[in-house]
Amino acid sequence: MARAGVNPDQQRMQTNPRDLLLGSFHAALAAADPLKIVPQHLPRPPRGRTLVVGAGKAAAAMALAVEQHWPADAPLEGLAITRYRHGLLTNRVNVIEAGHPVPDESGEKAAQEIVRRVKTLKPDDLLLALVSGGGSALLSLPAEGVTMNELRATTGELLRCGAPIQEMNAVRKHLSAIQGGRLAAASRAPVLALVISDVTGDDPTHIASGPCAPDPTTYQDALDIVKRYEVRAPKAVVEHLARGARGEIPETPKPGAKIFGRVENRVIATAQQSLAAAARFFIAHDIHPAILGDSVTGEAREVAKVYGALAREVRRRGQPWEPPVALISGGETTVTVRGNGRGGRNCEFLLALAIDLAGVEGVHALACDTDGIDGSEDNAGALLAPDTLARAAKKTLDAAGMLDNNDGYGFFSALGDLVATGPTRTNVNDYRVILVA
């Protein structure tokens, strides 16, 4: 299967649309590289020992950055959980790989060990938490009365229902013994959480389900979300949430709780920073960048229609910007799965955009997830060109039918237009750009 790779050498970048799109994506990724970002946010070592715990797709790179810049004579130990194939070789912080987006027993055992170690900390020690997107599934320690199999089943249903990540995480927090601020609550030592944001709004309570952040949501909120989206959760899960809503189970730590007086959640990388880096890339190539926002949400195919209308207006009338212009956006769209095809939200967005544009000349696009994984596939996203539908027709690909089947991956794979980066070991959500020549 032919794939488009990201060229890391900007000096060799050509000015054709494909290379410009890929080059801008590389610039966005570089702005979110933990090896570059983490060191400037490291604290001084405490009088006691420092325990590093991490969870997320960036956890291994963040842990390595800590190791590389921590004083050799200062005590340092820890455990970080990351997705399979996302590990790195570390010496002082043990890196464990586990299941994502559906949790597994590897993550559960590692989370149990993290809680055990955190509970040994004393007031003179430091808990350094490394939090990034993907941590909700990776830091998986089911609450008492909920089994891992029940948590897995519920997670799978949440992923298919089309709920925004904030609502998904409200449910997961109330099925967890470690998220929703409970990790910080288990520590007697001060807590510094360095957070790479993969959610719109960059609120630490939503990132990796906020293991060190106060949780404003309730069991009743979680129960309402399950009902609203008709999530087919196991009976034990629904009963657990109902017991919490009745006050029979202690709530997650709330804003204003005393424990957060010794906790700092510091967001160190965001989608906006990556969009700004991509904008600088386009300026360097004499193309006007228009950042449309870092918090775009909604159904991927519906967002594509709005962006398609904007691209046509720019192309045909030079409004609200004269071309050439790069329409840049971030955030996280959703896909309500109705078919059985393969494809994440970025491929779905591009396939819907291709249908909406219907071959408008001079319009190219890229949509990729900065973690290198579009949904649960092995690609970051894909590329779109003015001739995409024409090339698809020659291969007898039914674009509309494949969109109905949620098979954006199959569509762009057949055209050789997938973008495959491999694990990027960071995650600041989706990156989309429409280049109007």
Write the layout of secondary structure elements.
Elements: E1 3-4, H1 17-30, H2 34-37, E2 50-55, H3 59-69, E3 76-83, E4 93-98, H4 105-118, E5 126-132, H5 135-138, H6 148-161, H7 165-173, H8 182-185, E6 191-196, H9 219-228, H10 235-245, E7 263-269, H11 271-284, E8 288-291, H12 300-317, E9 325-331, H13 345-357, E10 363-369, E11 381-384, H14 388-394, H15 399-404, H16 408-415, E12 418-419, E13 430-436
Parallel strand pairs: 1-12, 2-3, 2-5, 3-4, 5-6, 6-7, 8-9
Antiparallel strand pairs: 9-13, 10-11, 10-13, 11-12
Overview of the structural elements:
- The chain starts with a strand and ends with a strand.
- The protein has 437 residues and is α/β, with parallel strands linked by helices.
- Strand 2 (50-55), helix 3 (59-69) and strand 3 form a beta-alpha-beta unit.
- The strands form 2 sheets. A 7-stranded mixed beta sheet has the order 1-12-11-10-13-9-8, sandwiched between helices. It has a 6-stranded parallel beta sheet with strand order 4-3-2-5-6-7, with helices on both faces.
- It has 16 helices and 13 strands.
- It has 2 domains: 34-269, Rossmann fold; 271-436, 3-Layer(aba) Sandwich (glycerate kinase, domain 1), CATH 3.40.1480.
- The longest helix has 18 residues, at 300-317.
- The relative contact order is 0.14.
